[in-house]
Specification:
single chain, 177 residues, mainly beta, 6-stranded mixed beta sheet, 5-stranded parallel beta sheet, 0% helix
Length: 177
């Protein structure tokens, strides 16, 4: 588990939290890859991805641009049996959660995803969502919705749930090419 700027935990290979004006650009020949380790160290007897885990998370951020690289969620290399995670409250064995997304955008605005390859997510390739603020002074109140997301010339390949998911409180999204 890693902790972001607000001191809240996150489980992401790359976490962009409470930032603005960040651009990540891959090599022009398309060889840059951000890949989730399918066998990370974890608690003895349990896989490290039992909780809310993503390859790249963008949270409470503005003006974020991703260009020219591949995000690989390693699905197909992850274990599928139900002995990987601690049992639920009812004692039922659990497996790695289907909400392991390649890119999760949560309460963020002005996000550009351009000339990307988003592949092999155990969940959604791109998951767009915004939580309503618990209180008017909570960090989510700074950016109430996920808005103004542009996805251009991006391939979504072999993702388990969907290429792009709109969960709630999302608006002004354009998908071209």
């Amino acid at each position: 588990i890693c902790y972001g700027a607000a001191g809240l935990p996150h489980r992401s290979a790359l976490h962009i939290g409470n930032k603005s004006h960040v651009t990540i650009v891959g090599a022009p020949d398309g060889t840059s890859v951000l890949k989730l380790d399918p066998n990370p160290p974890g608690s003895p007897g349990h896989h490290a991805y039992c909780g809310d885990t993503h390859v790249l998370s963008i949270n409470l951020s503005r003006f974020i641009s991703l260009h020219n690289f591949t995000i690989d969620g390693s699905d197909g290399e992850l274990p599928e049996d139900n002995t990987q995670c601690p049992p639920g409250s009812d004692g039922t064995p659990k497996k790695i959660d289907e909400h392991l997304h390649d890119v999760r955008v949560l309460n963020a605005t002005d996000v550009v995803i351009d000339h990307m390859k988003i592949t092999k997510a155990h969940g959604d390739g791109l998951n767009l969502m915004a939580q309503r603020p618990a209180t008017p002074t909570s960090p989510e109140a700074q950016i109430p919705f996920t808005e103004r997301v542009a996805v251009t010339n991006t391939d979504f390949l072999a993702n388990d749930r969907s290429g792009i998911a709109f969960q709630r409180n999302v608006g002004f999204v354009s998908i071209v090419g």
